[in-house]
Amino acid sequence: MAAAEDLDEIEEVNANCILMANLQQASSSGTQTDSTLVYDTDESAE
To answer: Where are the stretches annotated Disordered (predicted)?
Structure first.
């Protein structure tokens, strides 16, 4: 059944696109949060 195989392939591609979009969003937002220093209770930057 070619149609079912095509559907599986389309779903896999869609999942990959969503995964890549999430990774791209995480990496771009990660650079913003990483630039903020985290201070301990004794106020030394970690």
So the answer is: 24-46
Q: What is the pLDDT of residues 18-45, one digit of tens each?
A: 889 988 887 776 655 555 566 666 765 5
Confidence bin at 12 (pLDDT 50/70/90) = very high
Radius of gyration of the chain (CA): 20
- 3-40 CB burial, b ≥16 within 10 A, e <16: eeeeeeeeeeeeeeeeeeeeeeeeeeeeeeeeeeeeee
